[in-house]
Amino acid sequence: MRLRPAAARWFELLTDREHLGGVLGCLADTDAVQLEAYSGLETGVALPDYARVIEDYAQLERRYRAYWPEVRIEAKSFEERSVDRVQADLERLEAWAAEADPCIERLQQLAGEKAALAEVEAIFGSAVDGLPDLSLLSGCGPTLQARLFALPEQVPPLAVPPGVLHATVQAGHSRYLLALGPSEELEPMDAQLQAARARPVALPRDLPADGGAAVTELRERVSAIDEALAAERAGLDALGERHGLAGILAHFTFLDWLVANVPKLPATEHFAWVTGWTSDAEGRRIEEALAAAGLPGLLHFPEPPSGLDPPVVLANPGWARPFELFVRLLGTPSATEADPSALVAVIAPLLFGYMFGDVGQGVVLLSAGVALRRRYPALRLLVPGGLSAIAFGFAFGSVFAREDLIPALWLHPLNEPLTLLAVSVGIGVVVITLGLVMDALEHAWSGLGLAWIESRAGLLVMYLGLVASPFVPAAALVALAGLLWFLAGSGLVARSAAAVGAALAELIETTLQLVVNTVSFARVGAFALAHAGLSAAVVGVGEATGSAFGFAVALVVGNLLILALEGLVVSIQTTRLVLFEFFIRFLRGEGRPFKSLPPPRGREATHR
């Protein structure tokens, strides 16, 4: 278990410009690199500004993306390609677009024809016996005309002219209106339907008179269009292969990632200098990844340049990593701050279980955490919370709000409320003391350990004396000694008598805070009592029903309410106690988080 976060390690990598793309993609695959340009190395020629070219590519992408193959980026794609050949690739992509336009236009036309035929086939295929002859409908005119409209869900009442015949057809979840009449009488009806946002559907021509034969003809036409579509798509695929479309798209996808994620790197005509930070303290992952990909590079790890703030890596074991969520609520600890994630992994479940002690309800929370932890990572916290609730449920003898199923291994909360409250305050004393110890560690890491011993150590002594004095009256002398220690030490550290006055003001404020923070933990016991009271109420309501069925319903509904409402409240209280009673003593969140370089879209990670 490591309480001090690690500062990322500075690295510098020299590679040839021809393989720069492959090197950057390889670094992204390690998930251990954050790039940062160093102004002191900006010599020679900078890499080109790809923003304009990427903008031209983005316009082509918006227009043609539906007709492009899936982008697949592999490491070797960039071992053989220089990032400086982008303009030639853009010209090749534009040449492909010019040749592909007629084919795409035919594809769109065929797709529209297929959709129209398939819709008409669905309409008349579902009600072939109740509709007029399709051949007559499609061939009528110019005096009589036929209309077919797809109706929206809500259609206002239509004023149908007296000379117009009409019928409503239901096909699946859609409704259609078929109308037949003189042209001059259909025109006002057309205007009404268009105002109602009805969509006109074209009626195909040259269909057989028999309804069944007409539907069969429509299906055959759809099949013929499918064959034509397949032929056009095959021609488009062949055109893409001839122009090397897949490789060009992979290159531009990589360059889009490059512009978004990679700072401007210093480069000469033949070489490029990649600099940044790595979370791999030994540097082996970068070396191994480059070696496995066969990419050239000279890597070394000098001291970071002055003026650069190293990002911080939280190196916690897997069981403590979910609790980094609490720490990140206040920011990222700096390299001289403590990372309390491992401590929170014990404190937060302890507080939660104490306030929510029930074996059955704890099993429900545990099961929910296990089932949903991959979809909703934050719910992984329910696993230790549920386990703690189960443990305290055995201690309190509570199973799904009932206290008559198992014996209490410790106590029943409603029978011994003062003990419950006293223990919760004792937990608070331990938590606050840990916060003061974390403050001492941070002073030591900052090189101020001696100053802490000379002054702020008195606060810890005074606090321990105060909390012990109700039980051991002589401890009040220890508290007084701590008070004098802090005041005298503050004056010695500042080498000024005036500093004693400032220290006295700080002492009064800090003492009040410590007392309030300590008493605040009594609410942990209060919520444990509230949970026990709600459980007793649920059981009481069930018993009042006078039937086994009523008792079961009351128990199920009551437990669901406790899980939903009190579970939320207890979670909020746990978070509040951790943030404002524990973290407030030492955590400032002044660090810079480590943000690893993401892989390009479509890139398969090969070195993770």
Attribute tags:
608 residues; alpha+beta; four-stranded antiparallel beta sheet; 12 strands; disordered C terminus
Structure explained in plain terms:
By secondary structure, the protein is an alpha+beta fold. It has helices at 20-30, 51-64, 76-79, 86-126, 134-139, 183-195, 211-243, 245-261, 284-293, 324-328, 341-355, 359-372, 382-396, 417-445, 449-468, 475-494, 498-520, 522-544, 548-582, and strands at 6-7, 9-16, 33-35, 45-46, 144-151, 165-171, 174-182, 199-200, 266-267, 271-278, 298-300, 312-313. Among the domains are: 6-91 and 242-300, no CATH class; 115-228, no CATH class. The strands form 4 sheets. Strands 3-10-2-11 form a 4-stranded antiparallel beta sheet, with helices on one face. A hairpin with a 2-residue loop joins strand 6 (165-171) and strand 7. Helix 1 (20-30) packs across helix 9 and helix 12 packs antiparallel against helix 13 (382-396). It is flat and about 110 Å long. The relative contact order is 0.14. Mean pLDDT is 87; it is low at 604-608.
